[in-house]
Every structure is written in C-alpha cells, then in structure tokens.
Amino acid sequence: MTRSHPLPDLVVVGGGVIGLAVTREGARRGLRVSLVERGEPGMEATWASAGMLSPIGEVTSAGPFLDLALRSFDGYPPWVRSVEEESGVEVEYRECGKLQVATSDEAAARLKARRSLAEAHGLATDWLAPREVRELEPSVASSVQGGLLLHRDHRVDGRSLARALRASAARAGAEILAGREAREILWNGTRVSGVALADGSALACGSVLLAAGAWSGRLAGLPHPIPVRPVRGQMLALMSRDVTLRRVVESDNVYLVPRDDGRVLVGATVEEAGFVKACTVAGVGQLLTSALALCPALAGAEILESWSGLRPGTPDGLPILGPSPEAEGLVVATGHFRNGILLAPATARAVGELLTEGRSALLAPEFSPSRFAREAARTERR
Ligand code: GLY
What we know:
Elements: E1 10-13, H1 17-28, E2 33-37, H2 45-48, E3 52-53, H3 64-87, E4 98-102, H4 105-120, E5 125-128, H5 130-136, E6 146-150, E7 154-155, H6 158-171, E8 175-178, E9 182-188, E10 191-197, E11 202-204, E12 207-210, E13 229-239, E14 248-250, E15 255-258, E16 263-267, H7 281-294, E17 302-313, E18 320-323, E19 330-334, H8 340-357, H9 370-381
Parallel strand pairs: 1-2, 1-12, 2-8, 4-14, 12-19
Antiparallel strand pairs: 3-7, 4-6, 5-6, 9-10, 10-11, 13-16, 13-17, 14-15, 15-16, 18-19
Helix pairs in contact: 1-6, 1-8, 3-6, 3-8
C-alpha cells in the first residue's frame, strides 16, 4: 500500500455533512484524519437537503434530542463563520425565521402547543392572525387560519456548506479520499485496527467514525446492528416572478425555503422506498399540490430542478451517536434523519471531545449505539 500521508489516527467513513464536520473538527484538534467517501463528499442527503435550521420545527416534545438540537443551533453562527473564513466559501447562512401556517383548527392547536414548547426553551415566537400572516408574507393563501412565527429558525445552503467543510478540513490537514469505498471494519481482537476498501487496499488506524448516513448499517465487520434505513425525500426548485418569500414558510404538508438567488425550494416527501433515489409523478405531484395550496401565486413558477435524497432514519427517531459499546475505537455518528445539517456542529464537537478528551457531555445515553446492541443480544437469547 503506497501512502503519501502518515497513518491516520481516525478514519471517517462517509462524506456527508456529519463526516465532513467531524473530519474538520478532528483535524483542528490535532488528529490525523482520513475521510473515505465512495462518491464525491456532500452529494447524498446533504446535497438533497433544504438546509432548514429548525430546532423546534421538527420536534413535538422536550428531551435529549431537542437539547442537542438547541446546542447545535446556538453554536451555528460562530461555527459557520469559522468554516467560511477557513474555506473562503460563503454558505448562505441566513437568520431569516420561519412562518408555520395553520390551515385547520387542529393544525392551529398543534402550532400553539409548539409555541409553548418553543417559549419554554427561550425561543421567541409570535402567534399571528390571518391578516398578520399575509402582511408578513403576502403570497401565502388567504384561507390560512393563523401562523406561528419562529424567530429563531434559520437556513443555510447544504451544498455550499459541504464544499466549505471539505476545503476547511483539507486546510486543517485532513486527507479526503473521494471515490474510495469502505467495505469492512478491521479488528485486532476487540480493538479497531483499520478499514478495508473496495479497491483491495486498507487504511490502518486507531479509531473509525461511522458516518455513512442511510448506508451505515451496510458496512461489513460491525460488532452490532446499526439499524439505519433510508427515508426518501423528494424536492423541487422553482423560480417565480410573482412570489418573494422573506423567510421559510411551512404548512402541515410542505415547506418553502427561499434562496438568495430567487429560487424557492419545495420539500419534501417522506417515503419508505428503499435505496431507490428517484423523483416520482406521485411525489412531485404531492409537492406541487401542497405548494400551490400554501402559496397560490406559485402557479406560474418555472420548475428548475427536481431531486431526491435518502435521510438516515432510525427505529426510535433518535440519532445513533457515541462510542460502540462492544469495541474499542469505533464511534458512530449516524441516523440524524431530518436534522443532519442542523446537528453537524454539535455532532462534530461531541465526537471531537470524545476522541481527544475521552468524554463529551453532549453524548446523551439515549443516543448510544448500545441501545441496539442490547436489543440484538436479547433477540439472540430468545
Ligand atoms: N429537514 C427537512 C426534511 O428532512 O425534509
């Protein structure tokens, strides 16, 4: 095996936003890090994402997930500033807020419960009457029954963020191995010794971070199941002369995310379709119908692009984040489902602290991979 770099301390498997963020963090903390990505980094779920930073928008209850989401959200401004400075890539981080509109009494009740949750966590909100909704966002349908304005709900461009993280990680000394597929984790007893690649080569290392998103459970040599499944999200990009949104606007069925260049992103379906990344007539139809119901003036918009991505879903909806209980040197950071972009800074920090300080307070026991190792052991005993 010929290598130009010294042996890495850490091999990161997976080049999505999580793998890239941890690679950068590890390199900045002085680790020798190599990232292995079978395609180009940032081209799967990260590329597909709308980039909403929505700590309260995607949860219904308090708990460790919301705590992690808020920690990550609070850390976003300085994190993104450093990534931009280090890389020279602007990532369109905008503190724009989000308007969640109610189209029924039930939806209004749900949003009011969300408002209480937000306020209990110190997030400023306003409840808007229909007239106020339209004053704020004139293109929203006149039939809405009200809206929840979440001031602390922002957006970023996931595609630029991946480019920026890659450049920043490389500048910090990390090695990015694009087009190289990890096949198997290698062991010396119960200690990680490296990663075998599909081209027949191997990278020896002291630690492995598994961050392969929806594909994480497919790596050979895992000491216990990593039950991540792909959850497809179809998306559209529209360009409209008639609609200018100032903030993210969302109904029960769809979200609309404005971009600085005038595009409006429309998302997203939530589908169990295996590893089939496709846009379907039904999926695109559903997005268009819901977008028009929310914002009728989009009727004349041009459809610029459609795409889909595979979110990494887990059985309990929580990320799988922390050291493997059955193996020294294996750390898992996957299953971020709808929130990979939001959770990237906190995940990077948690893994960085774990690898260089031996522990991280961000790693709640609820996220531990051990919950699935225990389950597998119980099933085996039956
Ligand atoms: N975070 C939005 C989505 O996954 O569709």
